[in-house]
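Take a specimen:
=====
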Amino acid sequence: MNKKILIVDDDPRNIFALKLTLKARGYQTESCTMAREAISVLERDGQFQAVLMDMMMPEMDGYQAIKIIKEMPSARDIPIIAVTAQAMPEDRQKCLDAGAEDYISKPIDVDKLITAIEKLM
């Protein structure tokens, strides 16, 4: 099984930490620092098992990006996990309403993240 995950986060430190964590567990990763770039990657390559989407990014936020991705025939079925520092119950619901399949708050609990990813595969 292909275990490839797209990480979308405007903070390179978050990307670095997530890549190390996921690589140690046998996942391949690709990363983008902008939502528009992530949309382009998903148009070219629909072979991802999941997308980790930071919700607070400049230019286009994760909410907008998820809506666009869910309308793309090549990517609509790829599960998206919203990743955000916004940790109130209504923030979780807002992410799910935008189209995310799951939600993880920052700082990321690695065990929760891996459980969320495995649940979606």
User: Anything to note?
Assistant: The longest helix spans residues 12-24.
